Amino acid sequence: MNTKTIPVGQDILSPAKQAAADLRADFTRRGIFIVNIVSSPGAGKTSLLEATARHWGGQHKMSVLVGDLATDRDAQRLSPLAPTVQLTTGGACHLEMPLIKKGLEQLGPIETEFLFIENIGNLVCPASHDLGEHLRVVVLSTTEGDDKPGKYPKMFRTSQVLVITKTDLLPYVPFSVDSAVADAQLIQPDIQSIAVCARSGEGIAEWCEMLEAARDRMVASRDDHAAVH
Ligand SMILES: Nc1nc2c(ncn2[C@@H]2O[C@H](COP(=O)(O)OP(=O)(O)O)[C@@H](O)[C@H]2O)c(=O)[nH]1
Ligand SMILES: [Mg+2]
Predict the structure, then answer these.
(1) Distances from the Cα of 32 to the Cα of 98, 148, 161, 169, 210, angstroms
(2) Is the minimum distance from the CB of 166 to ligand 1 under 6 angstroms?
(3) pLDDT per residue as tens digits for the range 138-177
């Protein structure tokens, strides 16, 4: 039997992966940095976004797509601070590209530097879905235990930044920031970590500076690429 080899020459992406790659490319061109925030429920994602918006105070423009199974409670919290659209999945445990696209349509033509996607509270399913983000940030609160990175390895392996929240509770809970970071680094040696407290504002300036630097790098690499071509 004759066999025929067909050289494809490129990765054949699934439609969802292709949609995510297209969104990332489009937003890179427009200078909009997409941050996908993942965590278990109640780790402090919305509080972190509230603190971010307050810290920037309009100095850097941000918009938010916020996902939940039900209710628009998070959008109600964030809307006074930044253009926000609530995405409700009606039960699905993670966000996917079609809902992100609907949310972007609802957001309308945005002039923004940062688009935050607050994912559904869940340390499992969201790990498998690229939403076109430039940066994936996993949030772990001090009340969840410092052993979680090793127990949910895919989420930490696919994230570039670990934000440890609720540092004000450290005196009351058995949680070591160093142990949590070391556990995450076993899985993802390059993971960058920041400890914050949304209530007191501790670490929020550092978190915002990290975001600004990451966006600057994206814009610089886009411009270098454009200059070469
Ligand atoms: N003590 C303390 N509580 C916090 C902090 N950040 C968030 N919380 C509380 O943690 C709970 C869940 O926060 P939320 O932002 O809704 O988490 P999300 O479900 O991940 O979006 C709320 O009751 C917040 O007030 C913090 O820095 N310190
Ligand atoms: Mg929330």
Answers:
(1) 19, 31, 18, 34, 15
(2) yes
(3) 999 999 999 999 999 999 999 999 999 999 999 999 999 9
Instruction: Kindly state the DSSP code that residue 57 receives in the 8-state scheme.
Output: T
Between 46 and 10, the higher pLDDT residue: 46
Cβ(44) – ligand 1 distance below 6 Å: yes
Banded pLDDT at 11 (limits 50, 70, 90): low
From the CA of 41, the nearest ligand is 1
Question: What is d(CA 20, CA 96) in angstroms, rounded to the nearest whole number?
Answer: 9
Cα 197 to Cα 47: distance, rounded to the nearest angstrom: 9
Give buried/exposed letters for 50-59 (b at 16+ CB in 10 A, else e). Answer: bbbbeebeee
Residue 114: name the closest of 44, 181, 170, 30 by CA: 30
> pTM of the predicted model, to two decimals?
0.94
- Find the helix or strand (DSSP H, E) in which 77 lies: helix 73-78
Cβ atoms of 127 and 158 within 8 Å: the answer is yes
Q: What architecture does CATH give domain 17-218?
A: 3-Layer(aba) Sandwich (3.40)
Q: Domain coordinates of the chain in residue numbers? A: 17-218
Query: Closest ligand 1 atom, CA of 50?
Result: 15
Exposed/middle/buried for 135, CB within 10 Å: 0-12, 13-18, 19+? buried
Q: Of ligand 1's atoms, which has the minimum distance to the CA of residue 165?
A: 27
What whole-number distance in Å separates Cα of residue 65 and Cα of residue 100?
A: 8
Atom of ligand 1 at shortest range from CA of 169: 1
Only one residue has tokens 């509230």, namely 50
